[in-house]
């Protein structure tokens, strides 16, 4: 018998559908739904919040930062598209790693994705709460201060619990637990509204651009551009969650590559246009301490009505991000549980709704409590390092599978292998190096906990072990 750390799932078994019928997820997603799922996950905190911080770091050259981060995602997206169309099974990069690099690496990347999605949902819920409270304030309504934020996050005020952040995640958990059809409808509607809001910003603000504000274009040199790229990478996180929907897609071999690549292209284009306009309307220095960077240029142009619409769009935008991230979280943990690497209760399917409802409610509650009780400013960087690590592994897996199974039927082929996956590894590795030492330490601690769980529980519980 070979080393259990490197035992692999059979691709042929996955493709033959050798999965108990009671464990199957319902197929409800088409190419349009997947594209909406990707845009729903991508356009959110990144464009509505992080663009201001990115402008202060890179100046008007923030455009280049978005292009660099977008290229890193594009190269990884091509690798995702090949795997998702070839092995259309729930679990995303976790499942792909299991078929190529072995069980231990699959568990580690699955554990990594748990961190990424959990923290993403929690961090975005805190941002959502801020915008929601601002919107209520416009109508003269105010939540008691003690229930507006996590303990110790507002200087000079006593706070115990972020109630809006908790409630929105619980509402999303309910939506996901009652069925993907209901969830995708809600997501599609919110994404259409969100994109319309971004297009409104472009249409209203473009007339107030002053080219002089773009000079100097690169005030902090390439160091500033690269640092901002590592930061705004957060704005692209989410397209990988589309791969989690493989088992619920009607025609995965065609629809998954379309959903992954089209959503990434649309969002990158919008990011570049928005960052160019916002730094053209007001000098980049004015974004210092601004919590609503997309609203600022409109306020400066005297278009307060449009700024209010943007704030509402931000709330809707963050809602879809949380929905897709929690969706991806539950599908990854569902796959790990179905393989025996996590407790079986996490892969139980609701008889009526055909969803992993227990996993949805459990992780929804954990994410809600984290957003309500823990300040996540520094921890949010862990989302980036977790995602970049996943992108590197999927790129390695594509190269390995091309070598080991060159004749495997691939509905979509990543072009120029190993060059494109190699570029993904290079770009993502470079962005990881831009993150601070504290982020690396925390990430290492999380992975160490995962290693302990694997050797104490998962290795023995694995269905391949039986």
Automatic annotation (TrEMBL):
Signal peptide: none annotated. GO terms for molecular function: amino acid transmembrane transporter activity. InterPro entries: AA/rel_permease1, AA_transporter. GO terms for cellular component: membrane. Its main location: membrane. Keywords: Membrane, Transmembrane, Transmembrane helix, Transport. It is a multi-pass membrane protein. The keyword Transport applies. It is found in: Membrane. Pfam families: AA_permease_2. The chain crosses the membrane at residues 29-50, 62-84, 104-128, 135-154, 160-179, 191-209, 224-246, 258-285, 305-328, 359-376, 382-403, 415-433, 439-457. It comes from the Bacteria. This is Amino acid permease. It comes from Domibacillus epiphyticus.
